[in-house]
Design goal:
With 95 residues, the chain is of the alpha+beta class. It has a two-stranded antiparallel ribbon with strand order 1-2. It is 48% helix and 13% strand. It is globular. The chain starts with 7 loop residues before the first helix and ends with a helix.
């Protein structure tokens, strides 16, 4: 169920994750394009504390727009393109 209010920051995160290698620096572990990016990387890009970025990422993952995967001690986030397309279709149909 889609229960989040529209947030400019969340829309920015979704946009940046379309091309993560373009918007985020290389990571020590995990490839941004293949594995996603960490809350630390998103926090640095937003200019906020990690816990603020983590709140946005957790919410987006909770509604299915992002996939979260643990690699080592960190969680990496990337877009779930199928779910995003599904939500877009719902809105196109006048949901």
């Amino acid at each position: 169920m889609l229960t989040t209010p529209v947030s400019e920051r969340r829309l920015d995160i979704l946009e940046w994750l379309k091309e993560p290698a373009r918007h985020f620096p290389p990571q020590r572990h995990g490839d941004p394009a293949e594995d996603g990016v960490t809350a630390d990387a998103v926090a640095a890009k937003l200019g906020v504390h990690r816990r603020v970025a983590n709140t946005h990422l957790t919410l987006l993952a909770g509604i299915g727009l992002l996939r979260a995967e643990r690699i080592g001690r960190r969680t990496y986030y990337r877009r779930d393109e199928m779910r995003i397309a599904e939500v877009a279709r719902m809105f196109e149909k006048g949901w």
